[in-house]
Design brief:
Helices cover about 30% and strands about 25% of the residues. It is an alpha/beta fold. The chain folds into two domains: about 110 residues, Tetrapyrrole methylase, N-terminal domain (Cobalt-precorrin-4 Transmethylase, domain 1); about 130 residues, Tetrapyrrole methylase, C-terminal domain (Methyltransferase, Cobalt-precorrin-4 Transmethylase, Domain 2). The longest helix is centred in the N-terminal third of the chain and has 13 residues.
């Protein structure tokens, strides 16, 4: 074991498109000893990493977590104590539904030095590539980011906050259980005709955008056979897609 403790870099890889990686992230990818990366990090980004750098896949998928989060936390500590320069690479931004706070909390407990490198979040990047501004003076004065990850088979969400008018709602990890999500949104009082978008593989050449309304979200996800990662955007800003869309993606409208 090295006498000198290493350092951990918690790095956001952005929403997928390699061109959206930050310069700081690229520099660190070239100089680290080992990269622990998530499932959502694109292959194009992994291809930028020099061959001498060790790659370790610690990604998770729905209902399949081969590497538990506590193990990842401890792995970062162990590698740093070996004197390694460790890069923890996460899709999007590490502090937006990325468990980055949990990981550096563990590092702090063990006295490990770290740096956080922000990434373009999925909400920001995917919305931009879909031609949907998250805020707009004529449509939305606020934006709410929500994770719809199921907990014990149910959603733990503030439904009244979600259905407030003149805001944009961005839902992460909402594809699984979308039928229940839609039902609870409508039950809470959200109007069924509010515009909504499903964006699969956002920012990539394979991006698909499905424009619909809240009541039809689940049906449209099945019709177009959408798979994760798919981001959901709800609000009148979605109406601007047809006019503001610029990226070469497959557009489908109900």
């Amino acid at each position: 074991m090295s006498n000198k403790t290493g350092v951990v870099y918690l790095v956001g890889a952005g929403p997928g498109n390699v061109d959206l990686l930050t310069l700081r992230a690229l520099k660190l990818l070239q100089t680290c000893d080992i990269v622990l990366y998530d499932q959502l990090v694109s292959q194009d980004i992994l291809d930028l990493i020099p061959r001498h750098v060790v790659l370790e896949n610690v990604g998770k998928q729905r209902s399949f977590h081969p590497v538990p989060q506590l193990h990842i936390n401890q792995r970062l500590v162990d590698l740093a104590l070996q004197g390694k320069t460790v890069l923890r690479l996460k899709g999007g931004d590490p502090f937006i539904f990325g468990r980055g706070g949990e990981e550096i909390d563990t590092l702090t407990d063990h006295g490990i030095s770290f740096e956080v490198v922000p990434g373009i979040s999925a909400a920001n990047g995917v919305a931009a590539y879909a031609g949907i501004p998250l805020t707009h003076r004529e449509h939305a004065q606020s934006c709410l980011l929500v994770t719809a990850h199921l907990k014990d088979g149910s959603f733990d969400l503030d439904w009244h906050a979600i259905i407030r008018p003149r805001q944009t709602v961005v839902i992460y990890m909402g594809l699984h259980g979308l039928d229940r999500l839609v039902s609870q949104l409508l039950e809470a009082g959200m109007a069924p005709h509010i515009p909504a978008a499903l964006i699969e593989q956002g920012t990539l050449d394979t991006q698909q955008v499905v424009i619909t309304q809240v009541s039809q979200l689940h049906e449209m996800s099945i019709t177009h056979q959408l798979k994760s990662p798919t981001l959901i955007i709800i609000g009148s800003v979605v109406e601007l897609h047809n006019k503001l869309s610029w990226f070469n993606s497959s557009l489908k409208t109900n």
